[in-house]
Design brief:
single chain; alpha/beta; 5-stranded mixed sheet; 4-stranded parallel sheet; about 40% helix
Length: about 300
């Protein structure tokens, strides 16, 4: 458990005081998983007793990105302190929790770290919407002391830390689940001889389906998996990983039909619906799901 101290000599982690941001908060989350008995001190810029401590987002050292020689992660984005720490310690942490170290490191870097690097260095995404977004930066800022609150912002930092830790831990869990799913789906694809891929559970399958190194994936045209509403879902494959255009299509006269009308038209007893756009259909039984998928495969429209 992280401890916050007012005594710099007691600390083994040092970051800046005052207003906090995702950079220093998530950096603290990562480092709390790297070192034993983490104790953080939130310093002012004038303090210099940093020897034998890991210092980030302050002090112009190895893990501060405010100096003139700050490292670039690509041609547009500089590393934040979190990015620098993830680059140095990320794989060390991942060796404790997974065997998929490189794949997991890249997933977390792309999903979380690069976002914090970009925003903390002023590289803001261009988003057009009719409403304001409560993004990660805004979520962490909720914990900073309000102008009229009589509270210690160091204590608020701990609350932000706990929230960030939950986000980080859940992201790790979800990304590991996606990696595991990819392995399972790839094995299923290798053992599938026809054009219908049948999964025993719903799991992310998109990455495996468009894995260019998996030649068998080119044969798959439609996917069946159990629905979380009971029964089975049927989803045609798209023409490419990033496209929404369907590779095969249900007959036009069936789009939007459901229940008795759909069952009557298709002669498939438990056919429940086909979406008006044709990207998903449902049946009560696996046998009927295969029949509905076959109907789509045989459609020449």
């Amino acid at each position: 458990m992280l401890k916050l101290t007012k005594d710099i000599d007691e600390a083994n982690l040092i970051t800046h005081g005052g207003t906090f941001h995702p950079d220093d908060v998530f950096s603290t989350v990562l480092m709390s998983k790297i070192i034993d008995d983490p104790v953080v001190y939130r310093a002012t810029a004038s303090e210099s007793a940093y020897a034998n401590k890991i210092v980030y987002d302050i002090g112009f050292g190895e893990f501060d990105h405010h100096g003139p020689d700050a490292l670039m992660r690509n041609e547009k984005i500089k590393y934040s302190s979190f990015g620098l720490l993830w680059k140095r310690y990320g794989k060390e942490y991942l060796t404790k929790i997974t065997s998929d170290i490189d794949e997991m490191w890249t997933a977390i870097d792309e999903r979380l770290v690069m976002q914090i690097d970009g925003i903390d260095n002023g590289n803001f995404p261009k988003i057009t919407a009719d409403y304001s977004l409560l993004d990660l930066d805004a979520v962490i800022d909720l914990f900073n002391r309000g102008w009229n609150e009589k509270v210690d912002n160091d204590e608020q930092f701990i609350q932000a830390f706990l929230t960030a830790e939950n986000i980080f831990d859940r992201l790790i869990i979800k990304e590991q689940a996606k990696i595991n799913a990819k392995k399972i789906v790839e094995e299923k694809i290798r053992n599938t001889t026809g054009e219908i891929l049948i999964l025993d559970d719903y799991m992310p399958y998109h990455e495996a389906l468009f894995n260019k190194k998996l030649k068998e994936a080119e044969n798959i045209k439609i996917i069946i998996f159990p629905s979380n509403r009971k029964g089975y879902n049927i989803k045609p494959k798209t023409i490419s990983k990033d496209s929404k255009e369907l590779l095969i299509k249900f007959p036009k006269e069936l789009l939007g039909l459901h229940d008795e009308e759909l069952a009557s038209k298709t002669k498939i007893p438990t056919a429940r619906f086909i979406h008006t756009e044709g990207f998903i259909a449902a049946t009560d039984t696996l046998e009927d799901a295969i029949s509905l998928a076959t109907l789509a495969l045989n459609n020449k429209e």
